[in-house]
Amino acid sequence: MMQVRLVTVGKLKEQYLREACAEYAKRIGRFAKLQILELEEARLPENPGEKEIAQALEAEASAIEKACAGYVIALCIEGKQQKSEAFAGLLTRLGVQGQGTVTLVIGSSFGLAERIKQRADLRLSMSEMTFPHQLARVMLLEQMYRAFQIQAGGKYHK
Question: Which residues contact 47 (CB under 8 A, 6 or more apart)?
């Protein structure tokens, strides 16, 4: 069974988002061993400057690097967009190639440090649209569940 590690910076604040994530995590559990790691978000002032943001991203990067294992997918705006079927195909190929662990990384609301993006095996973008940072986790878990359903020939995707 594939191990999927979701590394996120920051905690979910809203109960409804936590409930949605819990539901998808439960569903994914039929297909893969899911581990969600919430890392501490660097503290920034109300209106941080570019230098402060860069320092915060670097501080977060150290913890992210320690949490990554296996094939690493970094979610970032400049990443490649994929259809759900292509994402399912990627997970299938990784499994066939013997990749036991896949790590997906969601940075803080300011993104990811460049070294994390460079370390990633794939940079993935969910959309050209902008979404609330915390919603990204729900959306990614839903897409992971959808990918496993596509692999299994389930009806969910239709």
Answer: none
At 40, give phi and psi (nearest 5°): -70, 135
The two counts, helices (H) then strands (E), for the chain are 5, 5
**Rounded distance, CA 16 to CA 20, Å?**
6
Which residue type occupies 145? Y
CB 115 within 8 A of CB 76: no
- Residue 107 and residue 56 in contact, taking contact as beta carbons nearer than 8 Å: no
Residue 81 DSSP code: -
Question: What pTM was estimated for this model as a whole?
Answer: 0.94
Does residue 34 contact residue 4 with C-beta atoms inside 8 Å?
yes
pLDDT band for 145, please (50, 70, 90 cuts): very high
